[in-house]
Amino acid sequence: MLTDLFHIVIFPGFLFLCASGMTAEYIDRKLYARLQNRMGPPWFQPFADFMKLVSKEDIVPDEANPSMFRAMPIFALTASITAIFYIPLWHVNALYHFNGDLIVTIYLLTIPTLTYFLGGWYSTSLYSKIGAVRSLTQLFAYEVPLLMCILAPALLANTWSLSEMAAFYTNHKWYWAFNMIGFVVSIIALLGKLEKVPFDIPEAETEIVAGTFTEYSGRLLAIFRLSLNIEAITGASLIAAVYLPFGLELPTAAGFAVYLAKLLFIIAIMSLSRTVFARFRMDQMVEFCWKYVSPFAFLQILICLIIKGVWVR
Amino acid sequence: MPPEKGLKMRKVVIPIGPQHPALKEPESFNVTLSGERIMAFSARLGYNHRGIEKACEERTYVQDVYLVERICGICSHTHSTSFTQAVEELAALDVPKRALYIRVIIGELERIHSHLLWLGIAGHEVGFDTLLMYSWRDREVVMDILAELTGNRVNYGINVIGGVKRDLEGHHIKDISKAVDTLEERTKYYIDIATKETTLIQRLSGVGKLPHEDALSLGATGPTARASNVARDIRQDDPYAVYSELGFRIVTDNHNDVYGRTLVRLGELMETYRLIRAAVNNLPEGPIAVKAPRKIPEGEVFSRYEAPRGENVHYIKSNGTDKPERVKVRAPTLANVQTVARMLEDEQLADLPIVIAAIDPCFSCTDRMITVKDPDDSNPRGIIKWDDIRSYSIGLYRSRGVDFSLLNKKLAEKLKC
Amino acid sequence: MTREEEIMQGLIKKFPAMEGKIRVRRARRLTAETDQAGFEEIFAYAQKMLGFTSLCTITGLDEGQTLGLIYHITRTDGIVLNLKFSVPKDKPVIKSMIKYFPISDIYEREIADLLGVQVEGLPEGNRYPLPEDWPRDEYPLRKDWKPKSVFTSTARSNAAGEGVKDA
To answer: CA nearest B137 in A: which residue?
Structure first.
């Protein structure tokens, strides 16, 4: 009971995720700045931003639905924290696991996007509404390739549990190398999920101010931003667990170091893409996802099915 | 076709401005949207009307030079040059060649500064912030040169009626050539990016179409017109200063869209470097100004100038006194803003910022921010605090014989009384 | 004969009344004066036949008893024709030139706002450049107008009604 509480509140739950989420934001911002020839923020900037927002007044627009408006950030935060418990981080076994936790994790990671939609829709501002509709449109574009390409390694491992998948890839070394197409596809999908350039269409500031978050301020905005940071960590952890399942059998300290290295790698890739791309337009994004990304995800499934038929067993 | 077309959304009117992150100056656009598609567009201008034309009538010509310079923060030299050359024509002054060359050099440096600024804005509007950071970093090079030549980064104040105020010296010319070399190399890199980077091309091409005929009939000017293959440039059509001696090529493009406007501006940058080199190399010796009369003879004159954004015109009517009877200014943006409605027909909301930005609407940038590197590097982050800058500048001016401490004391005593 | 003189002769040949009212100021600058009745014909002729294909701007002048209007039209070779006519100040009504140059819309709004010229044939639209709550009978560019406080609190609050609207 006490250990469960420890897991949920401190490690690898809320506190750890807050700290790593903010560190990830710092690394992302610093890398982004250095790549653009700027100084970048000091290490405590994300924390300072958070504290500043928390100390400010929450303003709920008169026409917004107050309960929905206030509830959505909490939902987003809860969902992105909960997802971490089913992902094997630096050990073969996740904290909690059952057959089917893969699907649960993916859906927990979808909830934040739905809260962006609902939060934006219920703030009733025009910019928020357009941002909300855009984030939902975008969800339909990247969610299918993401689901398909996460399905492929699971097919190969013949299980619906992330922990059992990790065990399979630990026993069958180098099999993860077959899933590299899926890795690229899921990074693209994660960029869409986190609404980062080139997929930051729902919060394109030059068109719709801040999209969903236009009306949010103070604590509620702080929680939304925190949940985005934590979602980045959970998403990156999921990708690391599914596509880079090596080093899991190492002793705890070494395994933890390998885990952090994987996270850092994924975050660096995302910062890099943020630097070199311009923002897509909605139609271009949807077209790109359906025309190019989905077929690649499908190809990944085919590869896994063929390998499964030929080699495994 | 875009899948979100099936998305049924009630028609909404979304206000862009007067205050909006996409606009750097107050203007108001009302955009009617159906889903993501723009159905109607209306503009409301005039939020920045400061009554400068009226104010000019109540001030002397000398004061007006500085007043019209403040019409715009970016193309300030544009306005002061077209004003002074109009007054010089009225007073039949024979402006020295050297002064005209210096005006051209400053004017072309200003064009570089304006086009690099535009490039950054364009990058920002399509969410490509890296381009913004890079081109604004390079813009610093030309701003530093302008500060060195004139003392100011914007609103240079170099024009006086009858010539210019400051001369170019040997070391200035060396610095200009060095800066132009650096910038030319960087501009080549941007041209490379603009012609190869796929996401950028996808966002820019086919957006904000302005066919050749429409550009003519709507009276577009400057790069907006030249990107629709209208070879119109006041520097060549109606040469002022010494442009007829320098010779240059009008850069045009037939893409008719935002991408074409980007290429035209980048091409113009390369042409501008050539112009500056030619002007610096042929700089004649001689005086830099002639004395101008205080009272300007009666008459009227129409002065045109090719600003970075297009044709800038000044009409001045004098009544024989030291104050003008009427000063009329038409900035290029006013001519181009009409084309925006045409460009936005059947476009998407996502393209609205870049289409508006593509005509390069003029906005003031009066902020002066400084980062001073610590000379002895005892400070690892290389940034000096505000107080240190202040005491440094007081010390610097004291060493040059300017001391404000006495004045400050007097002021403090006065305030006490 | 220079191009400027050619244009001048062409105009005088077509409109003999222009004799003596049209002058070449310097290279590429022509000034012509006409009366209000004959203006539109000359304007249209200059656009269609003489190659003045763009309208630079319209300048409004306060000349005491009359308001002067100068249409600056240009050719692609840099020649500018400043075509001027005057209207009485107590009945300043002019016709819109929108059918010749669509761009004249904004210039006509400008002189309407700043000098109080009434423009016939101008489509409905926003004011330019003065704010919506600016009094309708205050024309800042007229010589007898002096800066003063024209804003009252009611005028301000009336203007605050603009904003977000659903269509």
So the answer is: A37
Contacts of B305 (CB under 8 A, 6+ apart): B78, B81, B82, B85, B234, B240, B311, B312, B313, B314
What tens digit of pLDDT does each residue of C110-123 get?
888 888 888 888 88
In contact, A100 and A167? CB cutoff 8 Å: no
- Chain A residue closest to B131 (CA)? A36
Q: How far apart are CA B36 and CA B39, in angstroms?
A: 9
Cα distances (Å, whole numbers) of residue A249 to A16, A87, A178, A258: 22, 15, 20, 11
User: pTM of the entire structure?
Assistant: 0.81
Chain B residues inside the 8 Å CB shell of A280: 199, 202-203
List the domain boundaries for chain A.
Answer: 16-310
- First-to-final CA distance of chain A: 41
B179: contact with A, CB 8 A cutoff: no
ipTM of the complex: 0.82
How many C-beta atoms surround the C-beta of residue B94 within 10 A?
A: 8
Does C134 lie at the interface with B, CB-CB under 8 angstroms? no
* Distance from C-alpha of B182 to C-alpha of B172, rounded to nearest angstrom: 15
CATH topology of domain B52-358: Cytochrome-c3 Hydrogenase; chain B (1.10.645)
List the alpha helices (DSSP H) in chain A: 2-9, 14-35, 45-54, 66-82, 101-122, 126-157, 162-171, 180-193, 205-208, 218-243, 252-276, 282-288, 294-310
- CB-CB contact of C32 with C22 (8 Å): yes
Closest CA to A204 of A300, A120, A144, A280: A280
| Dist CA C142 CA C135 (whole Å) | 14
Domain boundaries, chain B: 3-44, 52-358, 370-417
Which of A115, A29, A126, A125 shows the shortest CA–CA distance to A80?
A115
A-chain residues near B348 (CB < 8 A): 281-283
* Residue A93 pLDDT grade (very low, low, confident, very high; cuts 50, 70, 90): confident
Structure tokens that stand for A236 in this block? 């990156």
B271: which 2 tokens? 């042409």
- Region of residue C109 (left: phi > 0; alpha: psi -120 to 50; beta: else): alpha
**By percentage, how much of chain C surpasses pLDDT 90?**
1
Tell me the domains of chain C and their CATH numbers: 3-144 (3.30.460.80)
The answer to whether A227 and A73 are in contact (CB under 8 A) is yes
